[in-house]
């Protein structure tokens, strides 16, 4: 839906969206802000998310002559809009359509971080998994097979230690390759059991008919099946000036 | 027993989540799937909420939320 006259990023308070926009997501305490600070340096700006009391930090960095806008999302364990923070993170990734989303994970408890990663990957394939705190993992003798993980997930995986700066050059390069389209991730789709897939099959054509044949319709259909009303608010707020009544009918 | 009854310093293992809908989903998203080890770290002065170690993160749950988690004691 990029390129439409309506600019969702503006509704997130981001005006200079001529440059590519990259989001930093992840569980709390995984080093998102440390990475954000290391990449943007003093070139950052903090305010609030429009209409919310949650702090928004965004900044810029340059890599290979390309300016990139980086947005530090609130730390969350989920993207189900259980809290303001989760709703902001989810809305930004889904409605804001960043050119890439970096999911920052803690190498010392990787398993718990992968749940959020899968939720992000369900929204967009443009995801980079940055496994941070590898210095801590080394200290605890935790070994991670990064290449195998990248292969299994179908997205790039970058090991890092934000405190020392290790891995951040590769992270910037990976972001660049994703923005330029050189790197096209193909995450494995998450297939649910027959009942859910059947229901999806029924409502997907309807949703595609309203929003255009869009790859992210599946995610939206899943939320509607769950009865998530916040997603309807999002559609109204970020995508449509005049929401069609039919979408309410699809809502179950 | 219920997670809300797990004393401070004790460890248990998740057996089942006994509620449905968004609360269930939230508990699962926090990492509380069956088989997960969980330890009670501390209790706030009023007794509610409780702080737990779940898969390497410290997470506070209200007693009524924790009472939806069936566990077995491991100590
Ligand atoms: N040892 C180590 N500590 C880190 C690393 N990255 C971040 N930290 C520390 O982890 C804590 C949480 O980092 P922060 O950036 O605030 O995490 P956020 O909640 O995801 O924004 C801080 O004390 C950081 O200094 C790292 O790569 N190695
Ligand atoms: Mg932070």
SSE blueprint:
The complex is a heterodimer of chains A (252) and B (75).
Chain A: H1 8-11, E1 21-26, H2 32-40, E2 44-48, E3 55-63, E4 66-72, H3 84-95, E5 100-106, H4 110-123, E6 127-132, H5 134-139, H6 146-153, E7 157-159, H7 168-179, H8 194-211, H9 217-226, H10 230-239, H11 245-250
Parallel strand pairs in A: 1-4, 1-5, 5-6, 6-7
Antiparallel strand pairs in A: 2-3, 3-4
Helix pairs in contact in A: 8-9
Chain B: E1 11-17, H1 21-29, E2 37-43, E3 50-54, E4 57-61, H2 63-66, E5 69-73
Antiparallel strand pairs in B: 1-2, 1-5, 2-3, 3-4
The complex binds guanosine-5'-diphosphate (GDP) and magnesium ion.
Residues 32-33, 75 of chain A line the site of magnesium ion.
CATH class of chain B: Mainly Beta
Number-wise, the strands of chain B total 5
Uncertain regions of chain A: pLDDT < 50 for 5+ in a row?
1-5
Outline the low-pLDDT stretches of chain B. none
Widest sheet: strand ordering of chain B: 4-3-2-1-5
Could you say which structural class the secondary elements and strand pairing of chain A correspond to?
Answer: alpha/beta
Oligomerization category of the chains in this entry:
heterodimer
Mean pLDDT of chain A: 89
Assess the beta-strand content of chain B as a share of residues: 35-45%
Name the helix and strand elements of chain A from N-terminus to C-terminus, one letter apiece.
HEHEEEHEHEHHEHHHHH
How many helices of chain B? The count is: 2
Q: What is the spatial order of strands in the main beta sheet of chain A? A: 2-3-4-1-5-6-7
Biggest interface between chains: A-B, 15 and 10 residues
Please tell me the CATH architecture of chain B by its name: Roll
CATH topology of chain B: SH3 type barrels
Shape of chain B: globular
Listed once per kind, the bound small molecules are:
guanosine-5'-diphosphate, magnesium ion
Structural class of chain B: alpha+beta
Q: Helical residue percent of chain A?
A: 40-55%
Percent helix range of chain B: 10-25%
